[in-house]
Amino acid sequence: MTPGRPVPPPLAKPLPDVDTPSNTSADTTGATLAAAYGATSPESGLVPLTVSRRAPKADDIEIAIEFCGLCHSDVHATRGEWGGDTYPLIPGHEIVGRVTRVGSDVDDFTVGERVGVGCMVDSCRECDSCLDGLEQYCENGMVGTYGAKDPRNDGAITQGGYATSIVVDRNYVLRIPESLDPAAAAPLLCAGITTYSPLNHFEVEEGDVVGVVGLGGLGHMAVKIAKAMGAEVKVFTTSERKFAAARELGADDVILSTDPAAMEAANRSIDVIIDTVAAPHDLNPYFHTLRLDGALFQLGLPSEAMPPVNPGALIRRRIAYAGSLIGGIAETQEMLDFCAEHGVVSDVEVVGADQLNDAYDRMVAGDVKYRFVLDVSTLGSPTEKADA
Ligand code: ZN
Ligand code: ZN
Protein backbone atom coordinates (compact mmCIF):
# COMPACT_ATOMS: atom_id res chain seq x y z
CA MET A 1 0.00 0.00 0.00
CA THR A 2 1.22 3.52 -0.83
CA PRO A 3 2.24 5.39 2.37
CA GLY A 4 -0.25 8.07 3.32
CA ARG A 5 -3.07 6.54 1.30
CA PRO A 6 -6.16 6.02 3.47
CA VAL A 7 -7.27 2.50 4.14
CA PRO A 8 -10.40 1.89 2.03
CA PRO A 9 -13.62 1.66 4.06
CA PRO A 10 -15.00 -1.82 4.60
CA LEU A 11 -17.82 -2.87 2.29
CA ALA A 12 -21.27 -2.13 3.72
CA LYS A 13 -22.01 -5.82 4.09
CA PRO A 14 -19.17 -8.04 5.28
CA LEU A 15 -17.86 -10.38 2.63
CA PRO A 16 -18.68 -14.01 3.26
CA ASP A 17 -16.06 -15.97 5.07
CA VAL A 18 -14.37 -18.06 2.41
CA ASP A 19 -11.02 -19.65 1.96
CA THR A 20 -8.78 -17.58 -0.26
CA PRO A 21 -7.78 -19.86 -3.12
CA SER A 22 -4.41 -21.39 -2.25
CA ASN A 23 -2.79 -20.03 -5.40
CA THR A 24 -3.76 -16.38 -4.86
CA SER A 25 -2.65 -13.88 -2.23
CA ALA A 26 -4.34 -10.69 -1.00
CA ASP A 27 -2.72 -7.33 -0.29
CA THR A 28 -4.07 -4.72 2.14
CA THR A 29 -6.37 -3.11 -0.47
CA GLY A 30 -8.13 -6.43 -0.91
CA ALA A 31 -6.71 -6.80 -4.42
CA THR A 32 -5.31 -10.24 -5.05
CA LEU A 33 -2.50 -11.58 -7.15
CA ALA A 34 -3.29 -14.47 -9.45
CA ALA A 35 -1.02 -16.80 -11.36
CA ALA A 36 -1.54 -16.43 -15.10
CA TYR A 37 -0.12 -17.17 -18.56
CA GLY A 38 0.11 -14.55 -21.25
CA ALA A 39 2.26 -12.84 -23.85
CA THR A 40 4.75 -10.05 -23.14
CA SER A 41 5.26 -9.26 -26.84
CA PRO A 42 3.97 -10.59 -30.20
CA GLU A 43 6.98 -12.95 -30.33
CA SER A 44 7.13 -14.07 -26.69
CA GLY A 45 4.70 -16.95 -26.86
CA LEU A 46 2.83 -17.65 -23.63
CA VAL A 47 4.88 -17.31 -20.46
CA PRO A 48 4.06 -17.41 -16.72
CA LEU A 49 2.86 -14.04 -15.42
CA THR A 50 1.23 -12.62 -12.30
CA VAL A 51 -1.92 -10.52 -12.61
CA SER A 52 -3.48 -8.20 -10.02
CA ARG A 53 -7.25 -8.53 -9.59
CA ARG A 54 -9.18 -5.68 -7.98
CA ALA A 55 -10.95 -6.14 -4.65
CA PRO A 56 -14.61 -6.87 -5.43
CA LYS A 57 -16.63 -3.64 -5.58
CA ALA A 58 -20.31 -3.60 -4.52
CA ASP A 59 -21.51 -5.26 -7.75
CA ASP A 60 -18.49 -7.48 -8.35
CA ILE A 61 -18.00 -11.20 -8.17
CA GLU A 62 -14.62 -12.83 -7.59
CA ILE A 63 -14.21 -16.16 -9.33
CA ALA A 64 -11.63 -18.91 -8.78
CA ILE A 65 -11.14 -20.10 -12.36
CA GLU A 66 -11.17 -23.86 -12.99
CA PHE A 67 -11.01 -24.02 -16.80
CA CYS A 68 -10.57 -21.63 -19.72
CA GLY A 69 -11.11 -22.50 -23.37
CA LEU A 70 -8.53 -21.63 -26.03
CA CYS A 71 -10.13 -19.59 -28.82
CA HIS A 72 -8.58 -18.66 -32.18
CA SER A 73 -8.99 -15.01 -31.16
CA ASP A 74 -6.52 -15.65 -28.32
CA VAL A 75 -3.87 -16.70 -30.85
CA HIS A 76 -4.45 -13.63 -33.06
CA ALA A 77 -4.40 -11.26 -30.06
CA THR A 78 -1.33 -12.64 -28.29
CA ARG A 79 0.62 -12.72 -31.56
CA GLY A 80 -0.37 -9.11 -32.34
CA GLU A 81 -2.06 -10.14 -35.59
CA TRP A 82 -4.96 -7.72 -35.14
CA GLY A 83 -2.78 -4.74 -34.23
CA GLY A 84 -3.28 -2.34 -31.34
CA ASP A 85 -2.68 -5.01 -28.73
CA THR A 86 -1.04 -3.96 -25.48
CA TYR A 87 1.35 -6.13 -23.51
CA PRO A 88 1.49 -7.97 -21.25
CA LEU A 89 -1.68 -9.58 -22.56
CA ILE A 90 -3.40 -12.43 -20.72
CA PRO A 91 -5.94 -13.99 -23.08
CA GLY A 92 -8.97 -16.21 -22.38
CA HIS A 93 -12.70 -15.55 -22.73
CA GLU A 94 -14.22 -18.98 -22.17
CA ILE A 95 -13.99 -18.91 -18.38
CA VAL A 96 -15.58 -21.36 -15.93
CA GLY A 97 -15.01 -21.36 -12.18
CA ARG A 98 -16.59 -20.94 -8.77
CA VAL A 99 -17.59 -17.81 -6.88
CA THR A 100 -15.17 -17.05 -4.02
CA ARG A 101 -16.37 -13.57 -2.94
CA VAL A 102 -19.26 -11.26 -3.78
CA GLY A 103 -19.62 -7.49 -3.34
CA SER A 104 -22.07 -5.96 -0.89
CA ASP A 105 -24.86 -5.41 -3.47
CA VAL A 106 -24.71 -8.90 -4.98
CA ASP A 107 -27.54 -10.95 -3.56
CA ASP A 108 -28.28 -13.30 -6.47
CA PHE A 109 -24.96 -15.16 -6.67
CA THR A 110 -23.60 -17.22 -3.79
CA VAL A 111 -20.12 -18.29 -2.83
CA GLY A 112 -19.33 -21.73 -4.24
CA GLU A 113 -21.72 -21.39 -7.17
CA ARG A 114 -20.34 -22.42 -10.58
CA VAL A 115 -20.25 -19.46 -12.95
CA GLY A 116 -18.81 -18.40 -16.27
CA VAL A 117 -17.51 -15.34 -18.09
CA GLY A 118 -17.53 -15.02 -21.87
CA CYS A 119 -16.19 -12.45 -24.32
CA MET A 120 -17.25 -9.26 -22.52
CA VAL A 121 -17.07 -7.92 -18.97
CA ASP A 122 -18.93 -4.61 -19.40
CA SER A 123 -20.65 -2.28 -21.88
CA CYS A 124 -22.15 1.21 -21.67
CA ARG A 125 -25.54 -0.08 -20.36
CA GLU A 126 -27.26 3.01 -21.81
CA CYS A 127 -27.40 2.70 -25.60
CA ASP A 128 -30.30 1.05 -27.46
CA SER A 129 -28.32 -2.18 -27.95
CA CYS A 130 -27.46 -2.47 -24.27
CA LEU A 131 -31.03 -1.65 -23.22
CA ASP A 132 -32.25 -4.39 -25.58
CA GLY A 133 -29.93 -6.97 -23.99
CA LEU A 134 -27.67 -6.92 -27.05
CA GLU A 135 -24.57 -5.77 -25.16
CA GLN A 136 -22.30 -7.37 -27.76
CA TYR A 137 -23.46 -4.68 -30.20
CA CYS A 138 -23.01 -1.84 -27.68
CA GLU A 139 -22.90 1.39 -29.68
CA ASN A 140 -20.10 2.65 -27.46
CA GLY A 141 -18.16 -0.60 -27.73
CA MET A 142 -18.39 -3.55 -25.37
CA VAL A 143 -15.51 -4.05 -22.94
CA GLY A 144 -13.75 -7.22 -24.04
CA THR A 145 -12.67 -9.73 -21.40
CA TYR A 146 -9.01 -9.11 -22.27
CA GLY A 147 -6.98 -6.38 -23.91
CA ALA A 148 -9.75 -3.75 -23.56
CA LYS A 149 -9.89 -0.45 -21.70
CA ASP A 150 -12.29 -0.77 -18.75
CA PRO A 151 -13.87 2.70 -18.21
CA ARG A 152 -15.63 1.74 -14.98
CA ASN A 153 -12.32 0.58 -13.49
CA ASP A 154 -10.04 3.57 -14.08
CA GLY A 155 -9.41 2.64 -17.70
CA ALA A 156 -7.34 -0.36 -16.68
CA ILE A 157 -6.65 -2.88 -19.44
CA THR A 158 -8.71 -6.05 -18.91
CA GLN A 159 -6.85 -9.35 -18.53
CA GLY A 160 -8.49 -12.67 -19.36
CA GLY A 161 -9.01 -16.15 -18.09
CA TYR A 162 -5.65 -17.93 -18.41
CA ALA A 163 -5.40 -17.09 -14.72
CA THR A 164 -6.33 -18.51 -11.34
CA SER A 165 -8.91 -15.82 -10.59
CA ILE A 166 -10.89 -12.92 -12.09
CA VAL A 167 -13.20 -10.19 -10.75
CA VAL A 168 -16.20 -9.28 -12.93
CA ASP A 169 -19.33 -7.15 -12.52
CA ARG A 170 -22.29 -9.41 -11.71
CA ASN A 171 -24.23 -8.17 -14.75
CA TYR A 172 -21.71 -9.91 -17.03
CA VAL A 173 -21.42 -13.19 -15.09
CA LEU A 174 -23.27 -16.31 -16.28
CA ARG A 175 -24.51 -19.29 -14.31
CA ILE A 176 -23.08 -22.64 -15.43
CA PRO A 177 -25.58 -25.43 -14.76
CA GLU A 178 -24.01 -28.04 -12.45
CA SER A 179 -25.05 -30.85 -14.81
CA LEU A 180 -22.56 -29.65 -17.43
CA ASP A 181 -18.96 -30.85 -17.29
CA PRO A 182 -17.07 -27.63 -16.43
CA ALA A 183 -14.18 -28.16 -18.86
CA ALA A 184 -16.46 -29.10 -21.76
CA ALA A 185 -18.84 -26.23 -20.93
CA ALA A 186 -16.12 -23.53 -21.14
CA PRO A 187 -16.18 -23.27 -24.97
CA LEU A 188 -19.94 -22.66 -24.85
CA LEU A 189 -19.10 -19.13 -23.67
CA CYS A 190 -17.64 -18.16 -27.05
CA ALA A 191 -17.95 -20.95 -29.64
CA GLY A 192 -21.34 -22.03 -28.26
CA ILE A 193 -23.04 -18.64 -28.12
CA THR A 194 -21.50 -17.53 -31.43
CA THR A 195 -23.32 -20.35 -33.21
CA TYR A 196 -26.44 -20.45 -31.00
CA SER A 197 -27.27 -16.76 -31.51
CA PRO A 198 -27.75 -16.78 -35.31
CA LEU A 199 -29.65 -20.10 -35.16
CA ASN A 200 -31.86 -18.59 -32.44
CA HIS A 201 -32.26 -15.33 -34.39
CA PHE A 202 -33.40 -17.33 -37.44
CA GLU A 203 -35.80 -19.23 -35.12
CA VAL A 204 -34.54 -22.63 -36.24
CA GLU A 205 -36.93 -25.41 -35.27
CA GLU A 206 -37.88 -28.96 -36.12
CA GLY A 207 -38.33 -29.35 -39.86
CA ASP A 208 -35.70 -26.76 -40.77
CA VAL A 209 -32.54 -27.72 -42.61
CA VAL A 210 -29.31 -26.12 -41.35
CA GLY A 211 -26.06 -26.10 -43.31
CA VAL A 212 -22.73 -25.79 -41.50
CA VAL A 213 -19.61 -24.71 -43.39
CA GLY A 214 -16.36 -25.73 -41.67
CA LEU A 215 -15.99 -28.27 -38.89
CA GLY A 216 -13.73 -26.66 -36.29
CA GLY A 217 -14.41 -25.17 -32.85
CA LEU A 218 -17.40 -23.15 -34.08
CA GLY A 219 -18.65 -25.64 -36.68
CA HIS A 220 -18.84 -28.61 -34.35
CA MET A 221 -20.91 -26.52 -31.89
CA ALA A 222 -23.21 -25.39 -34.72
CA VAL A 223 -23.89 -29.05 -35.62
CA LYS A 224 -24.67 -30.04 -32.03
CA ILE A 225 -26.86 -27.00 -31.27
CA ALA A 226 -28.79 -27.17 -34.55
CA LYS A 227 -29.48 -30.89 -33.95
CA ALA A 228 -30.65 -30.09 -30.40
CA MET A 229 -33.03 -27.48 -31.88
CA GLY A 230 -34.57 -30.29 -33.94
CA ALA A 231 -33.11 -29.35 -37.31
CA GLU A 232 -31.73 -31.60 -40.02
CA VAL A 233 -28.03 -30.75 -40.44
CA LYS A 234 -25.86 -30.84 -43.54
CA VAL A 235 -22.13 -30.24 -43.12
CA PHE A 236 -20.03 -28.79 -45.94
CA THR A 237 -16.38 -29.75 -45.90
CA THR A 238 -13.45 -29.60 -48.29
CA SER A 239 -12.06 -32.86 -46.93
CA GLU A 240 -13.51 -36.34 -47.33
CA ARG A 241 -11.52 -37.29 -44.23
CA LYS A 242 -13.99 -35.25 -42.15
CA PHE A 243 -17.09 -37.16 -43.28
CA ALA A 244 -17.03 -39.70 -40.43
CA ALA A 245 -16.35 -37.01 -37.80
CA ALA A 246 -19.26 -34.91 -39.07
CA ARG A 247 -21.61 -37.89 -38.83
CA GLU A 248 -20.32 -38.71 -35.33
CA LEU A 249 -21.28 -35.20 -34.25
CA GLY A 250 -24.81 -35.78 -35.53
CA ALA A 251 -24.78 -34.47 -39.12
CA ASP A 252 -27.50 -36.05 -41.27
CA ASP A 253 -25.63 -35.37 -44.49
CA VAL A 254 -22.08 -34.38 -45.45
CA ILE A 255 -21.35 -32.55 -48.70
CA LEU A 256 -17.91 -32.31 -50.30
CA SER A 257 -17.89 -28.62 -51.21
CA THR A 258 -15.16 -29.08 -53.82
CA ASP A 259 -17.38 -31.51 -55.79
CA PRO A 260 -19.63 -29.49 -58.17
CA ALA A 261 -22.01 -32.44 -58.62
CA ALA A 262 -22.50 -32.79 -54.85
CA MET A 263 -23.09 -29.04 -54.55
CA GLU A 264 -25.60 -29.13 -57.43
CA ALA A 265 -27.41 -32.02 -55.74
CA ALA A 266 -27.87 -29.79 -52.67
CA ASN A 267 -29.57 -27.04 -54.72
CA ARG A 268 -32.51 -25.45 -52.82
CA SER A 269 -32.26 -27.85 -49.90
CA ILE A 270 -31.24 -25.63 -46.96
CA ASP A 271 -32.98 -22.92 -44.89
CA VAL A 272 -30.03 -21.37 -43.10
CA ILE A 273 -26.26 -21.73 -43.40
CA ILE A 274 -23.83 -21.10 -40.53
CA ASP A 275 -20.49 -20.36 -42.19
CA THR A 276 -17.61 -20.66 -39.72
CA VAL A 277 -14.67 -20.49 -42.12
CA ALA A 278 -12.30 -17.59 -41.40
CA ALA A 279 -10.25 -17.91 -44.62
CA PRO A 280 -11.42 -16.16 -47.81
CA HIS A 281 -13.77 -18.43 -49.80
CA ASP A 282 -16.41 -18.17 -52.53
CA LEU A 283 -19.91 -17.97 -51.02
CA ASN A 284 -21.84 -18.15 -54.30
CA PRO A 285 -21.97 -21.96 -54.47
CA TYR A 286 -23.46 -21.96 -50.95
CA PHE A 287 -26.18 -19.45 -51.85
CA HIS A 288 -27.17 -21.92 -54.57
CA THR A 289 -27.98 -24.52 -51.88
CA LEU A 290 -30.40 -22.17 -50.05
CA ARG A 291 -34.16 -22.17 -50.44
CA LEU A 292 -36.37 -19.12 -50.97
CA ASP A 293 -35.97 -16.74 -47.98
CA GLY A 294 -32.88 -18.59 -46.84
CA ALA A 295 -30.02 -16.93 -44.98
CA LEU A 296 -26.27 -17.31 -44.73
CA PHE A 297 -24.62 -16.12 -41.51
CA GLN A 298 -20.90 -15.52 -41.80
CA LEU A 299 -19.15 -15.90 -38.43
CA GLY A 300 -15.48 -16.10 -39.41
CA LEU A 301 -13.59 -12.87 -40.04
CA PRO A 302 -11.05 -13.35 -42.85
CA SER A 303 -7.98 -11.12 -42.77
CA GLU A 304 -8.02 -10.83 -46.58
CA ALA A 305 -10.79 -9.87 -49.02
CA MET A 306 -13.45 -12.45 -49.92
CA PRO A 307 -14.35 -13.27 -53.55
CA PRO A 308 -17.27 -11.03 -54.62
CA VAL A 309 -20.84 -12.03 -53.82
CA ASN A 310 -23.12 -12.36 -56.89
CA PRO A 311 -26.15 -10.16 -56.11
CA GLY A 312 -28.25 -12.17 -58.59
CA ALA A 313 -27.89 -15.25 -56.40
CA LEU A 314 -29.36 -13.30 -53.47
CA ILE A 315 -32.08 -11.50 -55.46
CA ARG A 316 -33.56 -14.53 -57.18
CA ARG A 317 -34.32 -16.29 -53.88
CA ARG A 318 -34.66 -13.31 -51.48
CA ILE A 319 -31.62 -14.61 -49.62
CA ALA A 320 -30.18 -12.70 -46.67
CA TYR A 321 -26.41 -12.54 -46.31
CA ALA A 322 -25.72 -11.69 -42.67
CA GLY A 323 -23.09 -11.58 -39.97
CA SER A 324 -23.41 -12.24 -36.25
CA LEU A 325 -21.28 -11.55 -33.17
CA ILE A 326 -21.41 -13.75 -30.03
CA GLY A 327 -24.66 -13.05 -28.09
CA GLY A 328 -26.02 -10.83 -25.33
CA ILE A 329 -25.79 -11.76 -21.66
CA ALA A 330 -29.43 -12.90 -21.37
CA GLU A 331 -29.15 -14.92 -24.58
CA THR A 332 -25.89 -16.49 -23.39
CA GLN A 333 -27.64 -17.63 -20.20
CA GLU A 334 -30.51 -18.98 -22.32
CA MET A 335 -27.96 -20.89 -24.43
CA LEU A 336 -26.29 -22.39 -21.33
CA ASP A 337 -29.66 -23.52 -19.97
CA PHE A 338 -30.58 -24.92 -23.40
CA CYS A 339 -27.29 -26.85 -23.54
CA ALA A 340 -27.89 -28.25 -20.03
CA GLU A 341 -31.40 -29.33 -21.01
CA HIS A 342 -30.14 -31.08 -24.16
CA GLY A 343 -26.81 -32.34 -22.79
CA VAL A 344 -24.80 -30.29 -25.29
CA VAL A 345 -21.14 -29.51 -24.56
CA SER A 346 -18.01 -29.03 -26.61
CA ASP A 347 -15.65 -31.89 -27.52
CA VAL A 348 -12.50 -30.82 -25.72
CA GLU A 349 -8.86 -31.73 -25.17
CA VAL A 350 -7.77 -30.48 -21.74
CA VAL A 351 -4.19 -29.16 -21.61
CA GLY A 352 -1.85 -27.95 -18.86
CA ALA A 353 0.01 -24.63 -18.81
CA ASP A 354 3.20 -26.22 -20.20
CA GLN A 355 1.28 -27.35 -23.30
CA LEU A 356 -0.20 -23.94 -24.17
CA ASN A 357 2.32 -22.93 -26.84
CA ASP A 358 2.11 -26.33 -28.50
CA ALA A 359 -1.69 -26.12 -28.37
CA TYR A 360 -1.58 -22.74 -30.17
CA ASP A 361 0.55 -24.22 -32.96
CA ARG A 362 -1.82 -27.18 -33.23
CA MET A 363 -4.85 -24.85 -33.36
CA VAL A 364 -3.33 -22.91 -36.24
CA ALA A 365 -2.66 -26.23 -38.00
CA GLY A 366 -6.27 -27.33 -37.41
CA ASP A 367 -5.04 -30.25 -35.33
CA VAL A 368 -7.65 -30.32 -32.53
CA LYS A 369 -10.98 -32.04 -31.98
CA TYR A 370 -12.49 -29.55 -31.42
CA ARG A 371 -11.42 -27.20 -28.66
CA PHE A 372 -8.47 -27.01 -26.29
CA VAL A 373 -9.31 -26.12 -22.71
CA LEU A 374 -6.71 -25.00 -20.16
CA ASP A 375 -6.77 -26.74 -16.78
CA VAL A 376 -6.15 -23.68 -14.61
CA SER A 377 -4.96 -25.80 -11.65
CA THR A 378 -1.68 -26.24 -13.60
CA LEU A 379 -0.80 -22.53 -13.58
CA GLY A 380 1.28 -22.61 -10.39
CA SER A 381 1.55 -19.71 -7.92
CA PRO A 382 1.75 -15.96 -8.46
CA THR A 383 5.01 -14.10 -7.80
CA GLU A 384 5.12 -11.32 -5.19
CA LYS A 385 4.73 -8.53 -7.76
CA ALA A 386 2.13 -8.18 -10.50
CA ASP A 387 3.20 -8.07 -14.17
CA ALA A 388 -0.26 -6.90 -15.26
ZN1 ZN B 1 -13.54 -16.58 -28.76
ZN1 ZN C 1 -24.14 0.20 -24.94
TrEMBL record:
PROSITE patterns assigned: ADH_ZINC (PS00059)
Gene3D superfamilies the UniProt entry points to: Medium-chain alcohol dehydrogenases, catalytic domain (3.90.180.10), NAD(P)-binding Rossmann-like Domain (3.40.50.720)
This enzyme's EC code(s): 1.1.1.2
This protein's UniProt keywords: Metal-binding, Oxidoreductase, Zinc
Known cofactor(s): Zn(2+)
GO terms of molecular function: alcohol dehydrogenase (NADP+) activity; zinc ion binding
Enzyme class: oxidoreductase
Record InterPro entries: ADH-like_C, ADH-like_N, ADH_Zn_CS, CAD-like, ER, GroES-like_sf, NAD(P)-bd_dom_sf
Recorded catalytic activity of this chain's protein: a primary alcohol + NADP(+) = an aldehyde + NADPH + H(+)
Region (Disordered): 1-29
Residues annotated as domain Enoyl reductase (ER): 45-374
Bias-annotated ranges (Pro residues): 1-13
SUPFAM superfamilies with a match to the protein in the record: GroES-like, NAD(P)-binding Rossmann-fold domains
Family the UniProt entry places it in: Belongs to the zinc-containing alcohol dehydrogenase family.
Designated name of the protein: alcohol dehydrogenase (NADP(+))
Organism: Arthrobacter oryzae
